[in-house]
Amino acid sequence: xxxxxxxxxxxxxxxxxxxxxxxxxxxxxxxxxxxxxxxxxxxxxxxxxxxxxxxxxxxxxxxxxxxxxxxxxxxxxxxxxxxxxxxxxxxxxxxxxxxxxxxxxxxxxxxxxxxxxxxxxxxxxxxxxxxxxxxxxxxxxxxxxxxxxxxxxxxxxxxxxxxxxxxxxxxxxxxxxxxxxxxxxxxxxxxxxxxxxxxxxxxxxxxxxxxxxxxxxxxxxxxxxxxxxxxxxxxxxxxxxxxxxxxxxxxxxxxxxxxxxxxxxxxxxxxxxxxxxxxxxxxxxxxxxxxxxxxxxxxxxxxxxxxxxxxxxxxxxxxxxxxxxxxxxxxxxxxxxxxxxxxxxxxxxxxxxxxxxxxxxxxxxxxxxxxx
Length: 372
Prior knowledge:
Oligomer: single chain
Number of helices: 12
Strand order of the largest sheet: 10-9-6-7-8-11-12
Shape: globular
Radius of gyration: 21 Å
Distance between the termini: 31 Å
CATH class of the domain at 3-124 and 308-326 and 341-357: Alpha Beta
CATH superfamily of the domain at 3-124 and 308-326 and 341-357: ATPase, nucleotide binding domain
Strand content: 15-25%
CATH architecture of the domain at 3-124 and 308-326 and 341-357: 2-Layer Sandwich
CATH topology of the domain at 3-124 and 308-326 and 341-357: Nucleotidyltransferase, domain 5
Largest sheet: 7 strands, mixed
Order of helices and strands: EEEHHEHEHEEEHHHHHEHEHHEEE
Structural class: alpha/beta
């Protein structure tokens, strides 16, 4: 078996996975730290890092047990190197490099954002680029083109808050606690978005902005004051969710051919669309995305367990997006897409070799890593 061992510790999920040939998940063990951080209303970085360190040994054993495999079956170790919380990333990278030295295996540092795209290839193993991706999470709302494995062209992103952060802040205003995104999703199901309408953010080109929408919700709650009812909160949750989702899909819609164009081209144009990241688990987004993309391209949205941070996607990215093809082009606003950087060697090429037990260049942790 050509197995890749994946390790993910970028934020508040500790995960270990074993993936065969970059496409088939044999084990994907995830421990959530929600209960640890709940009383603080958000992730406490130091507590998160300590918990990763305590959980990883047992999760490694559990992953091997579920996969029916052992260290001798592992050909590559993959670990998230960024973006994420610095202390959390260091824990995962330290464990991965220790295992690489002990087992004489190569260790690959993986871009977390790439991992979200590659989660779609675990969902649909036959999926190949070129594709259009919408990555929506707590820290990112990015539209990217992926013309080939390991190459990404950023064509649109948020100017301020990400969609996931906006959901979390809105949930806090509505008194829903932590984690906010899933709680807001549940409350919105019992609300009517048309009773308490909120503005829909819309910028020119392919950029997003959600900070003004948060302010609109804050002022609406202040106006209601003590008169706000449970139904009002549900209606506002539904209105906020609708504004975020429709804003996200409006930009995606601009990148897709019309159904008439698809018919005239006999299937030409963009063939594959991937929507991924933690926010891709949102109920309304999944339903509306299917409606928007239908008849224009093939949509892949990973199941919720592969939308959240997980090690299987990191293992898949390490095996399928092999360096030195890490190439990023930025053209926010939908302009030309000429490559901006050739990323060939470690740490940019993201591979540190330790086969044979010799010395190697350590993986560089980068908490603010974008698509580079």
